[in-house]
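Anyone up for a design puzzle?
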């Protein structure tokens, strides 16, 4: 009965952590803490996750510092950790004296038996949970099943973390696109403002030119005739007497501008 409560406590703690946080490291830390607290025979627990060609230690309890330094990163394909990852199946060694996969660090530690449980995600093995004991035949079928259930909860946590990372990445990419588009729009607006200012200057110059020409024509002391060869339009100052092209007045000099 006491064991059942301990197992329920482990599953409850891990499940709560999975649904409470999308931070995978927090979930892994909660997992190792719950197992080490509720299974007295478990003296050491570690969780590895695959990163390229290495299995990297992400959470652990019970190991001395010298051991952690030696096993923090396990290169492919060494030890029972990689054996579990490659096979994708649980591995229980009841007696390490009959085991060829445990490494020298594990033997120096005094490990007599161990269980290694794979962690799957999207059809691949992405890590494993290892528990060690200083006793042979230390783990029962129920405890192995418990570890399998824990691994399944971690698989949910891995999936949640990956989805969260994908959303974060998509959000970051969207922000970059928005920034780039905003910069483009600012540049377009800058060019449009410059074109508007140029149009205003051109219109002002035309207006000033027209005013100058109008003043020149209206105040000319002698007649100025402007001939539009297409429209046959004659323009001459109103303050001078009217003249014709066929018989200009003798007292007026005639300037003809072809448009």
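Challenge accepted. My sequence:
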């Amino acid at each position: 009965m006491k064991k059942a409560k301990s197992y329920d406590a482990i599953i409850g703690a891990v499940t709560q952590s999975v649904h409470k946080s999308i931070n995978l490291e927090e979930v892994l830390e909660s997992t190792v803490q719950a197992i080490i607290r509720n299974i007295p025979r478990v003296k050491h627990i570690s969780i590895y996750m695959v990163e390229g060609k290495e299995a990297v230690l992400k959470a652990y309890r019970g190991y001395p510092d010298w051991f952690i330094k030696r096993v923090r990163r396990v290169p492919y394909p060494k030890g029972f950790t990689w054996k579990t990852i490659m096979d994708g199946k649980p591995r229980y060694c009841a007696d390490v004296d009959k085991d060829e996969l445990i490494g020298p660090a594990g033997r120096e530690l005094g490990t007599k038996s161990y269980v290694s449980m794979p962690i799957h995600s999207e059809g691949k093995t992405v890590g494993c949970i290892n528990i060690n004991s200083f006793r042979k035949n230390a783990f029962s079928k129920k405890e192995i099943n418990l570890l399998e259930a824990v691994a399944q909860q971690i698989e949910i946590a891995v999936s949640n973390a990956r989805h969260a990372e994908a959303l974060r990445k998509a959000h970051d990419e969207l922000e970059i696109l928005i920034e780039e588009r905003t910069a483009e729009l600012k540049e377009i607006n800058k060019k449009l403002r410059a074109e508007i200012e140029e149009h205003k200057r051109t219109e002002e110059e035309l207006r000033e030119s027209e005013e100058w020409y109008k003043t020149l024509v209206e105040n000319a002391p002698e007649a100025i005739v402007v001939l539009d060869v297409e429209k046959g339009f004659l323009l001459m100052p109103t303050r001078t007497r009217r003249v014709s092209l066929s018989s200009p007045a003798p007292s007026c000099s005639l300037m003809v501008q072809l448009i």
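A detail worth pointing out: The longest helix spans residues 141-218.
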